[in-house]
């Protein structure tokens, strides 16, 4: 009887210890779950606060201004990206005024309306002569927007190559806003362009039966990106391995509306992994 009591007491103690460990693990998981949103919000606030300090002057180098939209108060300029393709820039006329920011909703609406008017103009936007706009909404750094139409339903894939053996070619299928695989209207942002280098772009336009209908090649001399110019503290913070491993780059960059300039880091070379 005494041995049985000792055995039962030992068993109860083990059960109590296991329960205690389980509670500790659950508490840690709950704490981590609660901390992740807080960390994300802290990062967002830290970045936006830092950007307010770093990016007070929104003026950028543009080429010749060849037109303007008086209603939207937006000028059309030629982007100086080499002779490979004609690229436009949308420049708000109040960009030099104190307090201007691209994050103003009214500014975004003006840029959107200007872009829509360009799309619906009498120009024949084809794969060889697309509507190409550098960083159309001003909040990124090296995004290249493309818009064109094809006679039949097609899919667009592209490859980006630079003369640097340490940077591999980047290939992707252009994402469609309607979610379809094929269509006649193509509107997407070309990602994977490397700043500060000449990018050789190849568009491969494929029909719904898998036959290649057209191949278009052009070059883009991308400028160095201001989004890379963080203060050392901010750059180190976003580069910390524990953060990227905890959040995952894809999950973090789902906050594109808040952190679009940071996610442009992913767009200039999607194969880069800071947390590796």
Give structural attributes:
36% helix, three-stranded antiparallel beta sheet, 9 strands, 276 residues, alpha+beta, single chain
Summarize the structure.
By secondary structure, the protein is an alpha+beta fold. It is 36% helix and 25% strand.
Topology of helices and strands:
Layout: H1 2-54, E1 65-69, E2 74-78, E3 88-92, H2 105-119, E4 131-134, E5 144-161, E6 170-173, E7 183-190, E8 198-207, E9 212-221, H3 232-239, H4 241-247, H5 249-252, H6 256-268
Antiparallel strand pairs: 1-2, 2-3, 4-5, 5-6, 5-7, 5-8, 8-9
- Which stretches are low in confidence, meaning pLDDT under 50 for 5 or more residues running? 50-54, 226-276
Structural class computed from helices and strand pairing: alpha+beta
On the 0 to 100 scale, the average pLDDT is 75
**DSSP helix count?**
6
From the N-terminal CA to the C-terminal CA, the straight-line distance is 60 Å
The tally of beta strands, per DSSP, is 9
Q: Categorize the overall geometry.
A: extended
Largest sheet: 6 strands, antiparallel
How large is the share of residues in beta strands? 25-35%
As a percent range, the share of helical residues equals 25-40%
What is the string of SSEs from the N terminus onward?
A: HEEEHEEEEEEHHHH
Rg for CA atoms: 25 Å
